[in-house]
Design brief:
Blueprint (H helix, E strand, L loop, with lengths): L13 E2 L10 E3 L4 E4 L10 H8 L4 E4 L3 H7 L9 E4 L18 H15 L1 H13 L4 E4 L6 H13 L3 H9 L5 H11 L15 H15 L2 H7 L5 H12 E3 L8 E4 L5 H17 L12 H10 L1 E7 L2 E9 L3 H4 L6 E9 L8 H15 L4 E7 L3 H9 L3 E9 L7 E9 L2
Parallel strand pairs: 3-6, 4-5, 4-6, 11-12
Antiparallel strand pairs: 1-3, 2-7, 8-9, 9-10, 10-11, 12-14, 13-14
Helix pairs in contact: 3-8, 4-10, 5-6, 6-8, 6-11, 8-9
Length: 419
């Protein structure tokens, strides 16, 4: 369940639904609040325009400067929605010309604090619109990253979503970075921005920004009270009444399918989304771009790759290898090796990972092999505990696994006897 909505001309339009509150009792309702890159790229009488109108959006908040909307275009007028231009950034800056020595995390966080303190009037208006508009609403800037990410962080924080989830939501722009860079090059005669951080959304930027808000105001709620002049309890209550729903007690059934080459883009995207989830939690394991299309084509050719779906939408995946000498050394053909067990963060049904693991074990058993084996980073005790709770036993450690990428690393070896 990819929260990015697939437009042709928009690259960073996504639903803010499905995020859970920290108390675990509620989640953001899907289909009510969207964040996006510039809607000025939409054109009437195109499939993208039809898709946008189908979402039922009734309010569009454009966070760009008026001169940006005039020069780059604003969303076409339509009787189905109201348009508001609330420029929250008062000190324009050019990210593209920054030099390579500028660290994106602290640099962007400083700019966000400027916006937070300069744009209080516009931020207050935007927040009140979101809190008191019942129909679907979308807010956007140019790339859907900085000003948009800042407003999204404020709303999610007031809804009671955990900070690491707010950081993760910010970093999901990384999935659109390549397309955003291509747009910039197309507007600038094929040149490449001087700053390597252009179009990037590192988790550190949002972490630094949230820490700066806490340092200056004590909390997001205090920022709302002191800087915006609003009652944080009233605003948070209105947001929760409008946007939250109880966690469902029942979910549609998952189905499992052996993947084909046509599924490779979805697998790459699922891997990168899971990697960003890890990064937001400071888990040093996967990295976006770490598994390309070539990897999944190889795994399909030499083993099996499976997908979990709910109502036709991908919610998870895993790989089965029939040998794994890098981790386990030479072995007789008595096991299948489970790799890349991954679920769509926040949007897959509860226990999807456990169901996929059981399905992988069934597939291995059907092949006549007696064991399911897997490994996890020795430095990840939480993941080890997860596999142990599923019936796997630690049988050793490989202190210098070489998976073909980077330096050797230590892994814990686990196996489960099947049948």
């Amino acid at each position: 369940m990819d929260r990015h909505i697939a437009f042709e001309t928009l690259h960073n339009f996504r639903d803010l639904g499905w995020y859970r509150t920290a108390d675990g009792r509620s989640r953001v309702r899907a289909g009510l609040l969207y964040r996006a890159d510039s809607l000025g790229k939409l054109t009437e009488n195109t499939p993208d325009w039809d898709l946008f109108l189908s979402l039922g959006v009734r309010t569009v908040i454009d966070l760009r400067h008026p001169w940006e909307a005039e020069g780059r275009g604003r969303i076409p007028a339509h009787p189905s929605f109201a348009y508001r231009n609330l420029s929250i950034e008062h000190r324009p800056y050019d990210q593209a010309v920054q030099t390579a020595d500028v660290d994106p995390g602290p640099y962007l966080a400083e700019r966000y604090m400027e916006v937070a303190e300069d744009g209080t009037k516009e931020i207050r208006e935007a927040l009140e619109l979101i809190a008191h508009t019942d129909a679907p609403l979308v807010f956007h800037c140019a790339s859907g990253k900085d000003r948009t990410g800042q407003l999204a962080a404020l709303v999610l924080g007031l809804l009671g979503v955990e900070e690491q989830v707010i950081v993760e939501d910010f970093s999901l722009t990384e999935l659109a970075t390549d397309a955003l860079l291509a747009d910039w090059r197309a507007r600038n005669d094929g040149r490449t921005p001087a700053w390597p951080g252009f179009g990037r959304a590192p988790a550190s930027a949002m972490r630094h920004y949230l820490a700066a808000v806490d340092s200056r105001y004590g909390s997001t709620r205090n920022y709302v009270a002191q800087a915006l002049g609003l009652d944080p309890d009233a605003v948070a209550g209105a947001l929760r009444d409008r946007l939250l729903e109880p966690i469902p007690s029942a979910w549609p059934e998952s189905t499992f399918h052996r993947s084909t080459p046509e599924d490779v883009p979805a697998l790459v995207r699922l891997h990168d989304t899971a990697a960003l989830w890890q990064s937001a939690r400071e888990i040093d394991q996967w990295t976006p771009g770490g598994k390309t299309a070539a990897h999944f084509h190889t795994r399909m050719r030499e083993g099996e790759v499976w997908l979990a779906r709910v109502a036709g939408t991908v919610t998870g995946a895993w790989e089965i290898w029939w040998d794994d000498p890098a981790a386990w050394g030479p072995r007789p053909p008595d096991a299948g090796y489970v790799h890349r067990l991954m679920t769509a963060p926040h949007t897959s049904p509860p226990a999807t990972g456990r169901r996929m693991l059981a399905e992988a074990e069934s597939r291995i058993a059907a092949s006549g092999r007696a064991y399911a084996r897997l490994d996890c980073l020795a430095s990840n005790p939480r993941l080890r505990a997860y596999y142990e709770s599923a019936g796997y036993k630690v049988v050793g450690e490989n202190r210098a696994k070489n998976g073909g990428q980077g330096s050797p690393y230590a892994v814990t070896l686990l196996e489960k006897r099947l049948g």
